[in-house]
Amino acid sequence: MKNQLMPLLGLFVTSAIIGIGESRVHPSQHRGKDGVAQLVNDKAVWDAPAIQARADSNPVSNRFLSDKTEKFAVNGTGIPLVDFDVGESYAGLLPISDNENERDNLFFWFFPASDEKNRKRREITIFLNGGPGCSSLYGLFQENGPFIWRPGTQKPVRNPWSWHHLTDVVWIDQPVTVGFSTGNVTIHNEDELAQQFMGFWKNFVDKFRMQGYKVYIAGESYGGYYGSYISNHFIDANDTEYYNLRGLMLLNGQISNIDIHQQVVAEAFVQQNYNLMSFGDRMMDTIRNVSDRCGYREYLNKYYTYPPAGPQPALGPWAEKSNGAVGYKEGCELWMSIYRESILENPCFNIYNIQDHCPSLPNPIDETNYFQREDVKNAIHVPLEAKWNLCIDTAFVTEDGSNPPSHRELPKVIDKTQNVMLVQGASDFVIPANGILLAVQNMTWGGKMGFQSKPVSPFYVPRWGWGHHRGEYYGGDLAERSGVLGTTHHERGLTVVVLTSAGHGAAYQAGTATFRNLEKLLGRIDSLSEPGPFTLPQLRDIPQLEKPLGKGTYPIPWVVAGH
């Protein structure tokens, strides 16, 4: 029943592009002329963040520029509508094999690390949006790239929480035909997708002379499948010259089936978020009755425990087989019933972030057809005849026939790398955090099943410099939260983080939090619960909270109370 979830995962990116989701940007970008003038006067006492003040007269050297890469070089001052220098980057198409007649290509946009110390590290992070079939240019432009153009804003701004401040990062449109990638759809499953990606990656490494580089992979949403399977194939290659995998991070990533991710935890999600999903008594009685009759509550209370109660059955009491196919028993599609009722009661209800509200802000990428512009295509070396789509539903020949990665691929990646992170937004109703945590309790790695101890540790996001004195202000264009923003836990090479400040798009809604998670993935910090500063040079002296921080702010486990 996994396939019922796939359209929703692709729809998240589409929804974000058309304006569903909050926009957390500097207030001057949403004010009228008088309000802006007042803010300009107020802001005069603040300095711009150091990371945003690179002088054009002293540019960072183009360390990856060579005869092989010259045709991919992007003019940092020539990106349409971006009125600042984004620095060194490279974009274009590379084939998925070394066959001289290869017609299938993947599109990439590569940004070397901006920080001087981080530029010396031989490492790169791959970022993949999900879908299946959604372009990673969404992630670059509206989540974690060097410049961000959020809904309701007039132009792109620098992103102080861009991942390229920590490491080399490449955003890749894949599989073939997704985004600006070109060719023919030929794949049927994730193994074939990973083989396609491996061929591209070898060409990328050769082109940019990255042999032996440490590789980290980050996948969002359906990228839980992408990242797990690609990582597994990197490991199987046993070739550290090209596929030197050192870690994997999944952001709101799908790792199990729809029953575990949605149906089993639906009643608990409503109860846990009753202030935002406050149904009347009649609907609440219906939810409780369906959960009881179909066995969801009993299943959750039995298996969502620490340590785990044992293997979870492959077929739950809510399912039945008919003519060889597995489906829901009549009246047992609880998650969909809740979704439909939520929309009826609140037309602004957003399943990707239940904290969201109307009005939706217009998204400039959609409103301006930005990626269809000839000057944009020229800037990033895309053929003018190429047609960019945010998401397509034809990434596979039919449907993805792969098993959930929690069965085999993800445990293997944990065991081999000892560095896997599952980062989940608490306000995500498409893949609720409890559904991820329930799936983890049915997963075996490191010789044991699930987490043995209940997650209670605080997830700490460092103070980043907000203040009312000269020199203390950082990241004003994309102000973000700090402090204890969730719950985290680590055992046997697996780290789980639940963010209270985010929904399905963790990198979109919690830039500082995901920046901190990347620091952990890359080995810059040892713990997500220690109140230490960010590792960027200009943030290392910012005073932090003192210990003890207390417990995490997302309760785990959350089972249905009173029944």
From TrEMBL:
It holds the Pfam family Peptidase_S10. It comes from the Eukaryota. This is Carboxypeptidase. Belongs to the peptidase S10 family. Keywords: Carboxypeptidase, Glycoprotein, Hydrolase, Protease, Signal. One of its GO terms (biological process) is proteolysis. Its EC number is 3.4.16.-. GO terms for molecular function: serine-type carboxypeptidase activity. Residues 1-23 form the signal peptide. Transmembrane segments: none annotated.
